Amino acid sequence: MVIERLIERHQLAFFLNVFNRFTDKPLGYLGNVSDGGLMLISQLPMLVDANFELRIKLPGTDGSLQLVDLTARCLWCREDVTPNCYDSGFILYQPPAEYAVLISTLQRYFSFQPLQASA
């Protein structure tokens, strides 16, 4: 069964750690993001059709951590081209507003946009 993506994904040049929200153990790295999902790159395969409680820890400007908690279901998992790595696709259930801010921030940070002249 082929499922075509309807939401544009934004590839990340650097990775953010993704953790199990309850155990605080690292699960992998954020590979790409969309409004309703994400791809996780991990050293172990993820269980397909299972729900996960995820946490992304973002560095704040004042040295504090901002936590973005997500509930997600793994839709697929396959071996990455990198040996001993796996890519897994997740759909998010009711992502919080902080996740939308994260996507917007990543889009600005990793895109090439002309600088605006200051007024």
Question: How do the strands and helices of this protein lay out in sequence?
Answer:
Elements: E1 10-11, E2 17-20, E3 26-34, E4 37-42, E5 51-59, E6 65-79, E7 86-93, H1 97-110
Antiparallel strand pairs: 1-3, 2-3, 2-5, 3-4, 4-7, 5-6, 6-7
Organism: Pseudomonas deceptionensis
InterPro entries: PilZ_domain (IPR009875)
Protein name: PilZ domain-containing protein
In short:
The protein has one helix at 97-110; strands at 10-11, 17-20, 26-34, 37-42, 51-59, 65-79, 86-93.
Give the low-pLDDT segments: none
CATH architecture: Beta Barrel
CATH superfamily: predicted glycosyltransferase like domains
Q: Percent helix among the residues? A: 10-25%
Q: What overall form do the CA principal axes indicate?
A: globular
Strand content: 35-45%
Number of strands: 7
Q: Main traits of this protein?
A:
119 residues, mainly beta, Thrombin, subunit H, six-stranded antiparallel beta barrel, PilZ_domain
What does this structure look like?
The relative contact order is 0.20. This protein has one helix at residues 97-110, and strands spanning 10-11, 17-20, 26-34, 37-42, 51-59, 65-79, 86-93. The model has no long low-confidence stretch (mean pLDDT 83). The chain is 12% helix and 45% strand. The chain is mostly beta strands. It has one domain: predicted glycosyltransferase like domains (Thrombin, subunit H, Beta Barrel), CATH 2.40.10.220. The chain is globular, with a radius of gyration of 15 Å. It contains 1 helix and 7 strands; from the N terminus they run βββββββα. The protein has a 6-stranded antiparallel barrel. Strand 2 (17-20) and strand 3 (26-34) form a beta hairpin.
